[in-house]
Amino acid sequence: MHVILTHEQADFDALASLLGAHLLSERALPVLPRRLNRNVRAFLTLYGREFPFVDPRDLSGEQIESAMLVDTQSLVTLKGMGKETRIRVVDHHPRRENLPDDWELSLDLVGATATILAENLRDAQRQLSALHATLLLLGIYEDTGSLTYGITTARDARAAAWLLENGANLEIVGDFLNAPLSPQQRAVYDELSANAQTHDIKGHQVVIACGDAQDVDEEVSSLAHKLRDLLDPDALFIFVKTNDGVRLVARSSTDSIHVGEIAAEFGGGGHRRAAAALIRDEEKSQDKDGKPDATRAPCEHLLAILPEYVQPSITVAEIMSRGPQTLSPQTSVEKAEQLMQRFGYEGYPVVEGGKVVGLLNRRAVDRAIGHHLNLTAASLMDAGEVTVSPDDALTTLQKRMTASGWGQIPVVEDGKLVGIVTRTDLLKTL
């Protein structure tokens, strides 16, 4: 007998990978794990009859000659497996340490394991049903944030396009990827958002939150996605107490914080932008009120090791121009035009009494000159005190530019204008 296996608490990438591997080798049975994410269970409730998945309780128990692991590198044992069972791995995560030498590995650092299998199906010129194509697309879209996460590759996009050509239904994909939280999940989410703490680690905003999900028999990864959307940190770590132990879910939005390496410190793993771990060996610790708190020790350990793993962010001081030229509010539009033509600047900070009061940009000057308006900087400028400090991270600069619409942001230190950073400076660095 030949089987295909994936990890517990399976997400859509795991389920889609089971299907893709089966379609490539129909004699191998795609065996469902014992636990599935809630949206995956809902999908199978509606469409399960259209798929060849096998419940592990229905296996005959005969000898298993080979097992393929998809979207995981952790061996799932079944009755009938032994030392003679050949193991092959198809995964999109980095190789784990200490894997047996006789395992056959197919590892590609793409956004989803479903991408690898969709490529193999395409190359083999296999025809897919619309529902099969939809599940494979669900796997790719879930792990890549619908092709928006930083781990997304061109291969993911090409595989998604091929699946759409084969009839993948985006309406179904949207329904199951954006499922609302259950009441139990909502209670844990409220607890996490209430006690979330933000830490500045080498210029990055890192959020750590802890909660208790012992009464929730559902995945916690969706809570991390919702919390990240709410708080928009550079990295998010949640520790949730479950009946199996403390579960860590980590997400990162920057290459400067490799959450896969951090999760490995807790016995887990993942890739640069997403990782998880299950901490079974809970230390006996207490909260500030003296009550048992299984999440306190992991949180303290995380805070202790974060500086080792977080790369310093680029700061405004590293890309700004010092000694900027400024205008006073009384500067005439003709004088501003002369300065812009002479020095090639697109904008000037307008300063009064040593304080930034606005920004005069070339577009406003050109418009006034074109209409023969004899105006001053004060009447043409974008009024406001939009500034950054030299120590601010690029993410802070980017958010401030986006919110204000200013293409040049004055840099202020101790109340004094010390530099200016432009949109071009930011884009070059990014």
Proportion of residues in helical segments: 25-40%
Whole-angstrom Rg: 27 Å
What's the N-to-C terminus distance? Answer: 51 Å
Summarize the main sheet.
Answer: 6 strands, mixed
Helix/strand structural class: alpha/beta
Rounded mean pLDDT is: 90
Percent of residues in beta strands: 15-25%
How would you describe the shape?
elongated
Per DSSP, the total helix count is 16
List segments where confidence is low: pLDDT < 50 over at least 5 consecutive residues: none
Number of strands: 17
Tell me the strand order in the biggest sheet.
6-7-8-9-11-10
Structure write-up:
This protein is an alpha/beta fold and 430 residues long. The chain has helices at residues 12-24, 38-47, 113-123, 130-144, 154-165, 170-177, 183-195, 221-231, 259-264, 296-309, 316-319, 333-343, 362-370, 377-380, 394-404, 423-429, and strands at 2-5, 29-30, 66-70, 86-91, 104-107, 197-201, 204-212, 235-242, 245-252, 269-270, 274-279, 321-322, 347-352, 355-361, 382-383, 408-413, 416-422. The chain has a six-stranded mixed sheet, with helices on both faces. A five-stranded parallel sheet has the order 2-1-3-4-5. Strand 7 (204-212), helix 8 and strand 8 form a beta-alpha-beta unit. Helix 1 packs across helix 4. The longest helix is centred in the first third of the chain and has 15 residues, at 130-144. The chain is elongated, with a radius of gyration of 27 Å. The protein starts with a strand and ends with a helix.
Question: What would a concise description of this structure say?
Answer:
The chain has 430 residues and is α/β, with parallel strands linked by helices. It is built from 16 helices and 17 strands. It has helices at residues 12-24, 38-47, 113-123, 130-144, 154-165, 170-177, 183-195, 221-231, 259-264, 296-309, 316-319, 333-343, 362-370, 377-380, 394-404, 423-429, and strands spanning 2-5, 29-30, 66-70, 86-91, 104-107, 197-201, 204-212, 235-242, 245-252, 269-270, 274-279, 321-322, 347-352, 355-361, 382-383, 408-413, 416-422.
